Amino acid sequence: xxxxxxxxxxxxxxxxxxxxxxxxxxxxxxxxxxxxRILVQSKRISTHCGNTSVGVQDIFFVLRKDKQLIAKLKExxxxxNLKNNIxxxxxxxxxxxxxxxxxxxxxxxxVNEKLMILDSITRDMxxxxxxxxxxxxxxxxxxxxxxxxxxLIGVQNLSNDAxxxxxxxxxxxxxxxxxxxxxxxNEKYKGKKDKPPFKLDFxxxxxxxxxIEEGVRRVYFNLPYRI
Length: 227
Description:
Shape: globular
Number of helices: 10
Helix content: 55-70%
Structural class: mainly alpha
Largest sheet: none
């Protein structure tokens, strides 16, 4: 269903070497499971607050420990005019006691880390390679047909706003999986000095399903929020 999009997302994430074809179905399952687990937690929040459906604010509460992701999602919604009063909704959120929130000043650190990774990925590209890479940057789970993504995650009665958020989360999830999978690959060749730390070039062997599975395991081990 999303094999082409996932392939492009993996290029954007630093994997120029290709991927085991079996990995695409596996990654679709990971995206589906991740989205549904977020929705299960969000539904509990929504029900506790007396609402009948999952809203943007419910998803944000589930993700609240990942301040950088929350900031990114809010900005994406503002840009697309999906929720003009998102801040008002968050202010009125039915809150639970939480004493473990990270300081908001820590948001810039992961943003800068990702910019460093993207710079490393594109630094040695020629014009043709960069043009192709730029196309992959526009790939999304939801930018063409929201209903298709709803079908993937198996939930139809979800607002477009909430679906858009899950699409962005899923795209970021693919990025993190690829980066961890590349680290897994590089650990096999610690003595090699010519390996780029954040990408697999075109002349490398494709990422294997085993490497991607280990990448997924490490993503969940390091996930800022729990689902």
